[in-house]
Structure formats: C-alpha cells, structure tokens
Design goal:
Strands 9-8-1-2-3-4-5-6-7-10-11 form an eleven-stranded mixed sheet. It has a domain at about 1-45. It has helices at about 1-10, 15-30, 35-45, 75-80, 90-100, 125-130, 150-155, 170-175, 180-195, 215-225, 250-260, 290, 325-335, 340-345; strands spanning about 60, 110-115, 135-140, 160, 200-205, 225-230, 265-270, 290-295, 300, 360-365, 370. The two termini are about 20 Å apart. By secondary structure, the protein is an alpha/beta fold.
Length: about 375
Amino acid sequence: MNVLKKYFKSKLSVKQRLVLKSIYNIFMKPGKWEKNINDLKFALSMYKDEYIHFLPPVMAVSVTDNCNLRCPSCLFLLENEQRFFHSFISVEKFRKVLETYNKDKKAQVIFLGGGEPLMHPEIEKLIDICREFNLSPKTSTNGILLKDKVPALKKLEHINVSLDSYDYASFKKYRGGTPKQFDAIMEGLKILKGSGISFSISFVLSTENVTETSRMLELGREIKPDLFYFHNINPHGSDHFNSLCIDDLNTKVFLNNVTNKNDYDFDIFLPVIFDTRSPLFLKSQCMQPWNYFCCNSVGDLSYCCHLAADKTIGNVFEGYDFNSPKMVELRKFIISRKFPPEIMKSCLYCQRRFMGEEYGWFDSKAHKWFIYK
C-alpha cells in the first residue's frame, strides 16, 4: 500500500489526488454523501473558481488571541508586535460559528488555534461542541499547559506540540521562555505518553538551527511521539531567519544524516525544501483560500492560518459568505499564479504553497523512507 501511495504521490498533482479521493469516497462511503459531494466541489473548484459554492473542508478558529510566549520567530509577531490581545471566544459564540457554517456537517476538520489554545478557560466545552457537529478537533500547542488540560486533550483527534527546542538553552533562544515553562512542557509530554494520548511534536527549521537537528531527534527518541514534524520556517520578510533551500550545504547534510537511519520508532515528516531557482518557485499556487475557513476570537477572517485576521476580509458574525471582495480578489491572483504585493513577503517562503511537495517521510512500521525529491 505504501508503495502505491508513493507512486501516485509522485505522478499526480495535489488537485488530482483530491479529486480521485473525493470520487472514491462518494462510492465507498455513502453514509457521508453531503460531505463527500462538498469535498468534490472543493477539489474541482481549487485554482479554477474565484467564487466558491461549497464549505471549505477545514475550519480553523483561533479560540483565543492570547499567548503565554513571545517567540522571536513567531510569524504573527513578525507581522505585528501587538498581534496578541486578551480575547477568548465565548462558548455561545463558538457554537454560533458552527451553527452558521457547519449546520449541514459538511466540513471535516477543525483546528482550535490561537494564540495558545490551551489558555482558553473552557477549551473542553469547545471540543465537545466540535464533536456535536461531526468535526474532528485538532490543536497545536506550545505545551506549557499540557499537564493541566489532560481531560480535554483526551477528547481531541490529534495534538501537536510545537516544541522547537531540545533543552532549556535552545528553548530560551528560540522560544524566549523560562526554566519553569520548559520543565512544564517536558512534564506534560511525559503525561501525554503515559496517558496513551496520540500526539506529535514539531520543530521549525531554519539555516540558523538546521545543524541542531540531531539533538532534536535525540529528544524525539526519548519522548517517543507518534509523529515527528520538521517545518521549514517562513521568515515573513524578517532578515533574522532564513528558510532551507536546496542548494544550502547544511540542509543537504541534514537531509542525508536523517534519511540514512531507519531505526526511528516514530514517523517523521520532512519539510518542503525550497528551490528558489525553479521557475515555479514564484508561481506555485496556494490552496488555502479554497481549503481553509479561518477566523480569530472576535470573528474576523484571515486568508489562511499563517496570515493575520482582518475585519475588511469579513467577519463571521456579520454575514460572511466565503466570497467577500478581498477573498475573491485573492483567489483571482492565485488562479493567475500571482499574489498581491502586500502579502507576497508572507507567502513567498510559506510551505503551504508547496503542499504535496514535501521532501519525504519515514514510516516507522515499515522502517522505510519514502523520498519524493
């Protein structure tokens, strides 16, 4: 099965795979007819229609716009130092969002984001509401509050801990946190493992820390997550961080070292490695304005989960219909393989533009690497 997946992944575009998957589900999963038809409409519309007439399959709601860290590489803070404000979506308003946009239960997944989502005082109630609407709730957390939220975490479909560090020195450098916070994360990870909760850990890589990946993997062997993600940093115009590119020597060493071993007891996902010399680098399209429905804690919309919310795009409590003038304009740009100049610095090195073009992944059950480059 993995060999077949590798073959189709290398031969088909992301859009082609989504179309085929949707058609397969329509015939093989008749109990989810409306959701499967919605998915097919999404797949057929992507990169083609500026106006959409379906529900984006993935919902992403920032349940709080507050955070207990101020990471130097935070994509939100790089755009706006005042990005984090003390706001939590209420249980009632959260339910209203789902009643308005997923009453027919066509969406598949909901990401409960932030800020730091576990700071929401009623996060467990929000998770319960997601389940009522047949959504698979997932979240990504910095891990500081893991040990305090175990009952809620057990109800999630998946948890990712954005670790980005392997000891306190690296935590202070890349996260700006305290010894107490780092110790809380390590304790929380042990509790997750001991409770049998499925989770992943992730590390954002840049040319500044790619030489430290062996230390990250050592920590992975100690923690034993289900999944281990490496992400390529999006510098959002910052000159303090640089993305991994195919001609960078340290990047080549990292890829060679990590793929020369097959004794990991967790799956590993390697990131997109940018080829800035390719003519497609500037023209690669992004599926997010078709695939994602993103809003913050006060209902303001964002183009995707990597860009700040802006009321001028739309607001979920003021009749947003997926086709606001700004969202339609963005889709027009992407269809023509361009991006508006004002967001180009944020999109240029975003790996979500290159979904389906990741370097490869490791299957811990088969003890085998699948390299796509």
